[in-house]
Write a structure and sequence with these properties.
single chain, 130 residues, alpha+beta, Aminopeptidase, 4-stranded mixed beta sheet, 39% helix, 22% strand
Length: 130
């Protein structure tokens, strides 16, 4: 899957094989974005698509007044494979002058990424308004 994605003519063609994976991650995020929104974000270069053999990531560059972050917006697939791309994310973060890599997600990510020196900055909670 990865090779096809890297050689695809458009972001949509690259991301279609990962659609079910990405949709699963979007569902956990309460569908704040659709798959089409993510494809459009990658096409406009507001987001970055990181295809792997059994996984993928979507990142975005966030510029704050005093810092820049490479934010992992979505992660889907095999945990070990996702963790294996960390050095690549660090290199990319350096290229864009990011001070840190951030991510928001399920509480399980705290334990899953502890061995890569990721620390908890905050936990995002929500309540639906009915």
């Amino acid at each position: 899957m990865k090779e096809e994605a890297l050689n695809a003519a458009t972001p949509l063609e690259a991301m279609l094989p990962y659609k079910a994976m990405l949709q699963s991650a979007l569902d956990f995020g309460h569908n704040t974005h659709s798959f089409t929104d993510i494809v459009n974000g990658v096409a406009s270069q507001d987001m970055q698509f990181w295809p792997m053999d059994k996984s993928c990531l979507i990142t975005e560059i966030v510029t704050y007044p005093n810092a820049r972050a490479l934010h992992i917006f979505l992660a889907a697939g095999d945990l070990n494979e996702i963790k294996g791309i960390d050095d690549t994310l660090i290199m990319f973060g350096k290229q864009i002058n990011a001070q840190f890599i951030s991510l928001s997600g399920r509480r399980g990510w705290v334990k899953a990424l502890a061995d890569l020196d990721y620390k908890t900055a905050h936990v995002t909670m929500y309540k639906e308004i009915s």
